[in-house]
Design a protein that fits this description.
The complex is a heterodimer. Chain A is 17% helix and 29% strand. Chain A has 8 helices and 16 strands. Chain A has a 6-stranded mixed sheet. In chain A, 44% of the residues are buried. In chain B, the strands form 2 sheets. Chain B has a 4-stranded antiparallel sheet, with no helix packed on it. A 3-stranded antiparallel sheet of chain B has the order 2-4-5. In chain B, a hairpin with a 3-residue loop joins strand 4 and strand 5. The chains are: A alpha+beta, B alpha+beta. At the A-B interface, helix 1 and helix 6 of A face strand 2 and strand 4 of B.
Chain lengths: 350, 110
Amino acid sequence: YSLPVLYKSDNGGVMKEHLWCRSDNKSSLFDVSHMGQIRWHGKDRVKFLERVVVGDIDGLSVGGGCLSLVTNAEGGILDDTVVNGATKFGDMKHFQQQMDEFDGDVTMEYLGDTMQLLALQGPGAAEAVSKILPNDFDLTNMAFMTGTETTLDGIDGCRITRCGYTGEDGFEIAMPAEHAESIASKLLEDPSVNPTGLGARDSLRLEAGLCLYGHDLNETINPVEGALAWTMGGPKGRRRAEGGFLGAEKILKPDGKLQKVAKKRVGIIGMKAPAREHTEIYDAAGEAKIGEVTSGTFSPCLKKPIAMGYVETQLSKVGTEISLKIRGKMQKAEVTKMPFVESRYYRVPE
Amino acid sequence: GNVATVGITDFAQAALGDIVFVDLPEPDDEFEAKESFGSVESVKAASDVYAPVSGKVLEVNETLTDEPALVNTSAEDEAWFIKLEISDESELSGLMGADAYKEHCEKEAH
């Protein structure tokens, strides 16, 4: 895929694109057509989905969605995904294998090159997207993590979901591939909308405490280690009690409580220099290695370095002092909670 | 001895993008030619910076701690990184002059 890291314009560059996304009345447009979109069919599709992801799919209301995790038989995470009324996944080979073993009626329709995906994120995203939605579309009462089919700029067969990867209000919109360019161009006619690349996308999601699969999550990490146990629902929830997804017995005890884990994903702050992926984490004395950074950057909003990484569970409490080995020198830092920048997900007014 | 003022070029700063952090050594630190003496960082990535000649650090540009963006606006003037006491002047002959460098950059751009 040919996706830009940044755009060269007056409002371009990672720093400017990042700050624009969090600015009042402004929004950022991302080309996220590299993301897979899958539509599931068959009367047993929910049962199948609950085998391959940890979330409460049966409990989703019409149009409702949730962040979920695809697991393997060891309880490791194969990918993260948003499952909603129309779904979005990776790793279809895994699904195909599971489908082969599944006794029920389910088929997977990969929307591949027939549909494209754009993301519009920022305080001004609702205002900007309203211009291409039908006049009677009720954005005010559209809740975070819900989606629906709609026309976009008059084009049928589109879908809009109120979700995103920046911590701001925003939408992911899917449209037939042949109309993606015209819809993107239409959105960009609005001077409050700024084309934004993957560089800013990464720094925005890191400020929001969101994981990047392949860096903060991988097959060797389970949902509890990843601080993502909430994707399995609350302690008294159905999925915790029933399990039933691949690897559940490696993650949950029979009573639904979480098995103890040796390491946990944490936020890290306080270091003078940026700490990038693979930076070694040591204890406060700088003697024992206790973990590793999996993502790090200089936060454009906070104007200081932030990072995400894994440390031994007993040293994962917020406020724990740690050391980072950056360019051979130990730097003081501490465990902090995430998100680093407060999220502003949309709430429907009472 | 001779003192070398070391930094990055305007061509380099443009290629790196917005600089948010510069990691510099301490006075009296010693480096061999081509050895990394620090880094210059954008939001996206860190880039090592290399000593063009061997020497000992005499002075470090403290301004860059508070104003890393100076590297973007004044790479070849106010945003020098370190001053090095050159230990082997013969190493200077291995460096490109200003015209040769300009030509080199123009070729790189294509």
